[in-house]
Specification:
With about 80 residues, the protein is mostly beta strands. It has one helix spanning about 1-10, and strands spanning about 15, 20-25, 30, 35-40, 40-45, 50-55, 60-65, 75.
Length: about 80
């Protein structure tokens, strides 16, 4: 499923210039395994893990997910 999840993350984000990371598209939120919903986050797609970075109150918060433990990915966006 890793290939499928990578495509979902790529669809929901755009490359961040000068890095290997991707930022969520404007107006798109993402939720992994029915957990927290992330908005305005940066996603890093590593070989063994996915890292979600948020900026809250001036602090960088990194959450890591093992590719093999991802069971669902949900995206939220406004309809046209």
């Amino acid at each position: 499923m890793k290939d499928t999840w990578e495509k979902v993350f790529e669809y929901a984000s755009v490359p961040l210039h000068g890095t290997m990371s991707r930022k969520l598209r404007e107006g798109v939120n993402i939720q992994i395994n029915e957990g927290k919903t992330y908005a305005k986050a940066v996603v890093f797609l590593g070989e063994q893990f996915v890292r979600i970075t948020e900026d809250e109150n001036g602090q960088k918060i990194n959450t890591y997910f093992d590719w093999t433990k991802i069971e669902s990915v949900r995206t939220y966006s406004k309809g046209e």
